[in-house]
Amino acid sequence: MPADNRPNWDQYFMEIAHLVARRTTCTRRAVGAVLVKDKRILATGYNGVPAGIEHCLTRGCLREQLGIPSGQRHEICRGLHAEQNAIIQAAKYGINIDGSMVYCTTQPCILCAKILINAGITQIVYAEPYPDEMTMGMLAEAGVLVRVYEA
Asked: Which of 3, 50, 68, 83 is the most exposed, having the fewest neighbouring CB atoms within 10 Å of its CB?
């Protein structure tokens, strides 16, 4: 492969995040997350229900049935967010993610922002915006660097 076709690190990890997102079981939005430290992948996650639970693809989405807009009433969603699943996978397999960064296909919501802060994530790179006004303020206050991915 010619050197000019070689992806830079942001492209590489964001393309992997988009691939991971394709595993989603959510009917509303496909999101992928990749935890990275020292240019090495630590864990990945996509949005969907917990293991052993019927997928929303077959059961349907309660938030959609109730007409709840995106970014609201997270507590009645059966699924976990991609960032949450990536952190859970790291914890399950004993992988230290303190000081790592995350590539997300979508800007984290406020719930995930709080989790990422306490998990020690130092940088977030995301591709698409998300309708959650509190997130950016809280991440800035915590000193987490946030960048919008530019292809």
From this structure: 3
**128 annotated active-site:** no
Q: Which residues of the chain have pLDDT under 70?
A: 1-3
Q: Which of 124, 97, 96 is nearest to 110 (CA)?
A: 124
Which residues in 109-119 are b (16+ Cβ under 10 Å) and which e? bbebbbbbbeb
With contact defined as beta carbons under 8 Å apart, do 128 and 83 qualify?
no
Q: How many CB atoms lie within 10 A of CB 4?
A: 5
Extended strands (E) in the chain = 32-37, 40-46, 101-106, 123-128, 145-148
pTM of the model: 0.92
Q: Which of 83, 133, 141, 150 is catalytic?
A: 83
**Radius of gyration (C-alpha) of the chain in whole angstroms:** 15
